[in-house]
Write a structure and sequence with these properties.
Blueprint (H helix, E strand, L loop, with lengths): L16 E8 L6 E7 L5 E3 L1 E4 L11 H7 L4 E5 L13 H4 L8 H6 L6 E5 L16 E6 L2 E6 H11 L3 E3 L12 H27 L5 E6 L8 H11 L5 E4 L17 E3 L6 H10 L3 E4 L1 H7 L2 E3 L20 E3 L19 H5 L2 H9 L3 H28 L2 H11 L38 H9 L9 H6 L7
Parallel strand pairs: 4-13, 5-6, 6-9, 9-10, 10-11, 11-12, 12-13
Antiparallel strand pairs: 1-2, 2-3, 7-8, 14-15
Amino acid sequence: MNVNAAEKLSPEPEEMLAFTVESALQRSGPRLGTLACKGRIPISTPNYIPTTSRGVVPHLSQDNIARHTKIQSMYFGLEDFIEKQPPLIPPIYEIPAPENGSRLRTFTAHAQDKVLILGPRRFPALESPLSNADKKLAICTSVGFRQLDVDDYLSSAATLTPDIFLAAGDIVTGQKPSQKRAEKMGDRTAAWLRDAVTAKVAAAELGHKYSLFAPILPLSVEMQQWYLMELVEDFRHSVDGLYVHDAQSVVGLPDALRALPRIALTPAMSPKELLYQISLGVDLFVTSFTGSATDAGVALTFNFPGEASQGSVDSSRRAIGIDLWDTVHATDVSPLLNGCSCYACRNHHRAYVHHLLSAKEMLAWVLLQIHNHHVMERFFSAVRMSIGAGTFEAAREDFEKQYESELPVTTGSGPRVRGYQIKSAGGGERKKNVKAFNKLDDMAGAIAENEPPGPNVDAQELESHGLGKQQ
């Protein structure tokens, strides 16, 4: 298979979205595919989908995305844009949009060839103190937690017109649901999916067309069998794909749903975890792993596959990244990763990025983000090649033997975090951001106490300041 074929523009599908499985090693194993959205660049799968924060890929402007990355799709959480509550109207709903165009694309200024995916919550979502209700979703906006009417979420699809819209699911975060709560999750999600299908049909009649992905609940197949049965019997021909919150969910999918593309919103924070989920049959990953490494000041350095195994395992595994806060890089003029062809490695070196981090220059995280996305793009390209060649499992085994599972512990601090990025754990918790400024009261007092003597000071006072003393 030509791994670069999907990166070229191909004839548009007749439908809004088409997914083709090109190769599958087994019924529930890794598979090669192509996801084609009308008017967008086709995406070769397996692949990853960068997360966004309030409409942008962190640290990357739209021109840098176009010039220095191969990012083909992005995930947006509606909660990022709707801090204003009725009767106030969020700005994203008021911006003019081209006829039959995407208001989401216009507001975020992303290129026409990018696939835009809209869900209710940012990823990873903060655990909310509020619960979902029969007609409401618990969300976290930039001004705090609140509930969003499910009908308002559904109407946002027609207003914003993303390429892919994720139907709302009754997802419990932070705790394991009870048997009774699990049954309610299935009932609510089925009802919300029915409303989402109705809203999609109504929007299409008005010229607002998008693809609809249905949720698979993070429950065992047995606990959601009635929901899956309803999904197959009532909605199979109304949904265009599936998304999961637990990669294990794809293993027990009914046969009628296996041909649909699968997006995973799972906390995969290492390449080993990504490889494991690929082995289960996940096609696309919404992942914050790349951004987390960048924020930590870590340059990713892993390659797939690793070097061929020689029958023995080295006790010291290779790191999947390097901490550029470490002073060992202060005079290192080698690229972030030898052999890397990204913009950062071609034009700069470790010592320069270390200096930028120490000076808290924004350019440090820009260069790291460009590099880390390049490493991820190369990683998934190599994964697709190994699946096509039938060597994926052997390559995965070699990779797991040679590389660490986690990112190195960083010795510095990242960019400032916002309230909608991390939830407070309660009283006595340390502040997440280091103080940039301090009060000057103590400093002013110290200056006054140590004021230099004037011209009329006698010799005795000069000696009290340590001047004129005999040694």
